[in-house]
């Protein structure tokens, strides 16, 4: 395990240790590049995980102050918690469900395929499916994704069996136990899934991939990677030429230090990454770093989401086994005949009693609500996740008055559903209920969105510098040794859960940075 | 398929607990009133008035009514309010004033204090009238975490709680559905 000096300006600093930062840092180290990962949260290893929904929520979630605005329901239900993401080594790969899907080919070029959608700030990615195919293959191998690389699918649990029976009755063709980064058989030193449930609380067996116990230890063993936990970066510094030179960060005790750097890569999720660029404003860059386009923080996407839970007259026990146990992919295609562009996935989901009470219908009370919970063990559930429209007004901005524990402006997250998002959600609610009605549901419950887990787009990738923040390598258009390495670089969101794409982009970016630093270009 | 036995389990400790509660039930309260078994928990109040405790308990049951969940689980959350009231005068005022407001409404509508309004639907209508009130939201919010987060109530819902120590569900019914 390496330990680098604060004044060592030959290191690459990666901010964040999740799917983007954790992958990038480890890959850079494996390429021989000396790297420091700065992680705002603590390091909680598998033995610190507990099968306890609120206990783990309190331990690993990003709970620093945030504000919300806009007409999205999350702003009403969870005004101070717009995102449900992790502040810990491993980032949100600690609590993710494991769904690992590639973008569909057209989803790299939706401006071309969908045309001009009023109110949407659509743009084609400057990369395509062909360019990404080898990186997806590498990512799938690294994550051990089921149904790739000869890895069998996971067995279906009760919640999946209900979904599958309903899907068959409705004539859906693509319903299976998913492409999951959860070992269905022992692989690469990790065991197979024991169907614990509690995937969102950190996998106690390590069968689910996380940078925490897969990539980061591999990186550390090279002697080229240092992971500095409890180190929250407050500002990125630059010199007179406009190149970044290092980062100002606060340690566990709040003491501030500067870590010098040759290259800085930002991977703090789609709220903290743009916030950090905006909070790094200087006399040379008064609108924030890498913001000549004015697009930093803009085009925030969170996926069209919602859930359908259904009650049956016989027991289901959906809490047994993996949280996301199967998928229907038929609605994922772009089929504008349904009244909206883009598509959505239907993925089983289960919550324990504590979370179900909080999320089934936030704020609801009385018998309409409690009679649903009375049937908890007779309940099946699915999450609906689809492509939402980037809109310039949906944005992460700096709050004019509210400050965090370091005296820096907190992020405000503004979001309004686009008409396309609403049409898609209504369709998804209807189809989700139909799946369960087909197998005899006595009641279906259209559950509103949870705090956002798929936060995307606030430093988007663009061919032209005027359209976005980073180029096709995730390198900022304005500053050549400053990169963005997380989901905030997404030009558009696609229907699929984003982690596999974030990992593939990070692997590709690591290869690029290693090559360019060796050539002396950055 | 393997299904949970949702009946409350009677253990020696719980029998003793219930015994203590039934003793409380017949305690003679100030003013000479003998409170009934349903109000037994009110006698445990430290900072709140017993009547306030009893009203909060009824309110808790009316907000999240589960007929198979015993009073003690709701009372556990109300005891948390009592603890807060003991530590903080502002909290005490919040609960006493909130309950007072509820009783004023109840008397005006039904000529009886909240706990004496007979039908749940009538009590719920009173609560609907104040559901935006911070007092109501505090009670409701605390119940979401405190009632449903209480591991003792989970078996009553058929939720089995932590599974890692039992080896997960791979051999314990994760795929045992037999009625499809």
Question: What does this protein structure show overall?
Answer:
The complex is a heterodimer of chains A (522) and B (180). Chain A is α/β, with parallel strands linked by helices and 522 residues long. Helices cover 25% and strands 16% of the residues of chain A. In chain A, the strands form four sheets. Chain A has a six-stranded antiparallel β-sheet, covered by helices on one side. A five-stranded parallel β-sheet of chain A has the order 5-2-1-9-17. The longest helix of chain A is centred in the C-terminal third of the chain and has 21 residues, at 499-519. Chain B is mostly helical and 180 residues long. In chain B, 32% of the residues are buried. The interface between A and B is large, with 45 and 42 residues.
Shape of chain B: elongated
Q: SSE order of chain B, as H and E?
A: HHHHHHH
Strand order of the largest sheet of chain A: 4-11-12-13-10-16
The Rg value of chain A, from CA coordinates, equals 22 Å
Proportion of β residues of chain A? 15-25%
Regions with little confidence, pLDDT below 50 for 5+ residues of chain B: 12-35
Q: How does the major sheet of chain A shape up?
A: 6 strands, antiparallel
List the helices and strands and how they pair.
The complex is a heterodimer of chains A (522) and B (180).
Chain A (H helix, E strand, L loop, with lengths): L11 E4 L5 H10 L4 E4 L14 H8 L6 E3 L3 H5 L32 H5 L14 H15 L14 H13 L4 E2 L38 H7 L3 E4 L3 E7 L5 E7 L5 E5 L2 E4 L2 H11 L24 E8 L15 E2 L15 E5 L4 H7 L7 H8 L4 E8 L8 E9 L5 E6 L4 H19 L5 E5 L34 E3 L14 H21 L3
Parallel strand pairs in A: 1-2, 1-9, 2-5, 3-15, 9-17
Antiparallel strand pairs in A: 4-11, 6-7, 7-8, 10-13, 10-16, 11-12, 12-13, 14-15
Chain B lengths: L11 H14 L24 H14 L7 H17 L1 H22 L9 H9 L5 H15 L5 H4 L23
Please outline what is shown here:
The complex is a heterodimer of chains A (522) and B (180). Chain A has 522 residues and is an alpha/beta fold. Chain A is 25% helix and 16% strand.
